[in-house]
Amino acid sequence: MTSGTKIRNLMRLLDASDAPVWAIDPAGKLVYLSAATARWLGLEVERLLQRRAVAGSPVSNDPLDLLAATLSPPPGLKHRGTASLRVQPAGDAKHRIDPIDVRFVRIGSGESGLTIAIGGRFSDRVPDEEIADAAIVRQQLDAWRKKHASIATVATAGVSSSAKRMRARIQVAANVRTHLGFFAPAGANCESIALRVHQQSAPREPIAIVDGPLMDPELLDASIVPVVNQLANSADAKATVLVRGLDEMPLDAQRHLVQLISSYSDRLRLIGLCSDQSNLDVPADEGSLANVSDREVVIGIKPPPRQIDAALADLLASLTVTIEPLASRVEDIPLLAAALVDSHHAARDGVGERLSRAAIDALVIYPWPNNFEELDAAMRHAVRNATRESIGPENFPLAIRSFRPGDSLARRKVQNISLDEMLESFELKMIKSAVEISDGNRAAAARLLGITRSRLLRRIDAVQTEATTSPPRPKKSSSPSDGESA
């Protein structure tokens, strides 16, 4: 009997079984799915062949890629050779796929190992606490991906009330085309979430992305001219403008944006990315800066409040999404980190595929000043540096693995410096830099500094006057007599 005949006979036997069975090759691709698997999934299994069954694989717009990824084995299979997982495939609105318990068995070793998956009931599991923890997290991730497939960016995962509120609002935003305000700290992956929402709520609609802090009315017109031309050329056309740092955008540019949106009624949609939702309540007018001194504004001791024009605030208030800092979502960190490890492992960044308990403890106590983006970079680093499947604290970047609560306060040192000299030096540098960037245009320099042109001129005159009239400061002497007289 030839080998081909043997394989066909084996496939007929597996197809005759009522247990779903599938096989995954060493590259992580589906190479066989039984007839029972086809009945369970409710589709022709040939459509899944050669798709990647690797947890965290990049998901394309094809829902079959997401379905194939849910058929992947849990962490620890390569080490143990066998593992069990409750598989929860992502179905669609018309067909609900029930979850089933699956035993994964790895046949062979090294890069030639083949994985066989068999659906059924198994009560002979030998628990490994850390692998069991990883399997539970994997099941949570699969449940999240299944429920939120349309908006399943990793940054939205989590079990905290903040994460649930965020996902609820994102889900609403993805189903309705309206003006939208995102409020998030730096590093929260806010723009990626906003773009996913745009793709879901207004597919194939053109979008212009602009940097708010750099805008003035003329530059704003130039930046969005392609979408404006489409709106002008067709009464049925629609477009979206996404503004990064909307609350840092100069007020004259904000008001010009309001005029543009009013000109095209509901056809021009705004998605604004801001730092703090409280900015919606700040009155945006020149007088609101009156209580901020010129020196404080220029040197950055007390920066001017970020502002949103009242008319613009009214547009954003219709639907807002708030993303909390990662430090206030401690219970979400293990799930987020596991999802990122899945993603980087699937991208073949390294051999690390699960986090040890010690690693999770280190992640939970770290304050994450740069939020999700810092966590993503740390997990990429860990997967690349791990020498085995389990990732430990030693695989993290130095800032994380060496962090101890209270370290930042303990490392502060009192330095013998002149505060006045430092402030004056910093003030001059900021003014000089802004004027140089603006090619000598002092009005543009004032906008960069967040102050009016008249205030900038007064500061330049004041600094120049101080430089020419102030007597030189006496140099400090280190002689013993000075020390005794003090």
From TrEMBL:
Top-level taxonomic group: Bacteria
Region feature (Disordered): 462-486
Record bears the keyword ATP-binding: yes
Transmembrane segments: none
Assigned keywords, A-Z: ATP-binding, Nucleotide-binding, Transcription, Transcription regulation
Chain ranges of the Sigma-54 factor interaction domain: 156-384
Domain PAS residue range list: 6-54
Biased composition (Low complexity): 477-486
Pfam families in UniProt: AAA_lid_14 (PF25601), HTH_8 (PF02954)
PANTHER family xref list: C4-DICARBOXYLATE TRANSPORT TRANSCRIPTIONAL REGULATORY PROTEIN DCTD (PTHR32071:SF57), TRANSCRIPTIONAL REGULATORY PROTEIN (PTHR32071)
UniProt name for this protein: Helix-turn-helix domain-containing protein
